[in-house]
């Protein structure tokens, strides 16, 4: 039986196909065609959760499926290692990493969190960290990250400190989910305070904001590629700075164990690797838009701000953050909340005594139109007419 070997040696793939610089820009009609598989009766304004995949990319993905099905040995022994390396090299340039060995492709940000926090947990058992050493995280952390900290850090003897963040946000000193966090500044504070390792879970970053991992300065940084970079689900890029990455390992152990995280992640047994393989095609797709991915990010930002302000004005409500802090998602207060108190009247309150309000997180991607947000506005208005209130969201006491 053969053994698949992955290497980061440029010599095995020195003729890397660069993404084409398309001369003809994509038209509105072509955009509609690329996303024609979307359910026509649904206004998709939640791109941030699961992303979207153009037909061009699903076609490329299907070609990789057929290559595997037609000749698995040829695919796994030759096509797969070279194509994954090509994808990693393109992403290395996109995020400005020093070396391709710092760039690993994993399933998603949840997997990346497990990889990093597993390493932290081993640090306690191996004596790098002492019992009651502290991991600091924000209250807005993704639930899977919080659970990973419990699984790998608390059980190993570490303590966890949660920093509460306010909402709505009025300035960049107040940071929370769905807005651009001042990551570079936060990493700088961590360094000044002697924090040993910094991990940034930037699940939405690539395709939303420009990413320069050297400028950010974190030890570990992850971003999904299926949320805002048009890759099929699921794939994420995990950056690990070379001088701290030596002891990182993928939790699924294969014969590549010990060859570095990027190589370990490139082979975790027989499975579908196609989301990692279509990355070059995604680069070509975004280059069909004026300004490439930077142009897409600007248009999404401008559009989501316009739609958020339209909704807030229509409902007479507030925005969840300053527009400049919202890349392609925006928190908009919905009018299914208490009315301001008049003459000592009572309003619905949560368990901490605060008034209950509701915010909707809207997203904008290249396929969205104004009609999508009008449908959403009208649906919320219908809830109002039906008597819905955020009071209904309060957990009932047993």
UniProtKB/TrEMBL annotation:
One of its GO terms (molecular function) is transferase activity. Keywords: Pyridoxal phosphate, Transferase. Residues 179-252 form the Aminotransferase class V domain. It comes from the Eukaryota. Transmembrane segments: none annotated. Gene3D superfamilies: Type I PLP-dependent aspartate aminotransferase-like (Major domain) (3.40.640.10). The keyword Calcium does not apply. Pfam families: Aminotran_5 (PF00266). InterPro entries: Aminotrans_V_dom, PyrdxlP-dep_Trfase, PyrdxlP-dep_Trfase_major. This is Pyridoxal phosphate (PLP)-dependent transferases superfamily protein. It comes from Artemisia annua. The lineage of its organism: Eukaryota, Viridiplantae, Streptophyta, Embryophyta, Tracheophyta.
């Amino acid at each position: 039986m053969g053994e698949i070997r992955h290497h980061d040696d440029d010599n095995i793939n020195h003729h890397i196909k660069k993404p084409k610089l398309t001369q003809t820009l994509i038209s509105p009609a072509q955009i509609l065609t690329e996303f024609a598989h979307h359910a026509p009766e649904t206004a998709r304004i939640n791109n941030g959760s699961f992303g979207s995949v153009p037909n061009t990319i699903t076609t490329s993905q299907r070609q990789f499926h057929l290559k595997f099905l037609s000749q698995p040995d040829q695919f796994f022994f030759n096509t797969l290692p070279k194509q994954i390396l090509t994808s990693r090299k393109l992403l290395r340039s996109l995020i400005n990493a020093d070396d391709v060995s710092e760039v690993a492709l994993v399933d998603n940000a949840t997997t990346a969190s497990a990889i990093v926090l597993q390493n932290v947990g081993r640090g306690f058992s191996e004596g790098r960290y002492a019992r009651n050493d502290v991991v600091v995280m924000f209250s807005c952390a993704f639930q899977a990250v919080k659970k990973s900290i419990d699984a790998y850090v608390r059980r190993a003897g570490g303590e966890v400190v949660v920093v509460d963040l306010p909402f709505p946000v009025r300035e960049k000193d107040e940071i929370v989910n769905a807005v651009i966090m001042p990551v570079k500044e936060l990493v700088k504070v961590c360094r000044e305070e002697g924090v040993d390792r910094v991990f940034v879970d930037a699940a939405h970053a690539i395709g939303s904001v420009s990413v320069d991992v050297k400028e950010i300065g974190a030890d570990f940084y992850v971003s999904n590629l299926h949320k805002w970079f048009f890759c099929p689900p699921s794939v994420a890029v995990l950056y690990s700075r070379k001088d701290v990455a030596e002891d990182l390992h993928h939790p699924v152990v294969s014969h590549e164990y010990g060859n570095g995280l990027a190589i370990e992640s490139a082979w975790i047994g027989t499975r579908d690797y196609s989301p990692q393989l279509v990355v070059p095609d995604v680069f070509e797709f975004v280059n069909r838009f004026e300004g490439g991915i930077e142009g897409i990010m600007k248009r999404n930002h401008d559009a989501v701000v316009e739609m958020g302000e339209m909704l807030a004005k229509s409902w007479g409500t507030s925005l969840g953050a300053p527009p400049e802090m919202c890349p392609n998602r925006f928190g908009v207060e919905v009018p299914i909340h208490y009315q301001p108190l008049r003459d000592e009247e009572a309003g619905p309150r949560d368990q901490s005594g605060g008034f209950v309000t509701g915010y909707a997180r809207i997203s904008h991607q290249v396929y969205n139109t104004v009609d999508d947000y009008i449908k959403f506005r009208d649906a919320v208005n219908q809830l109002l007419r039906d008597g819905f209130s955020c009071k209904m969201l309060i957990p009932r006491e047993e």
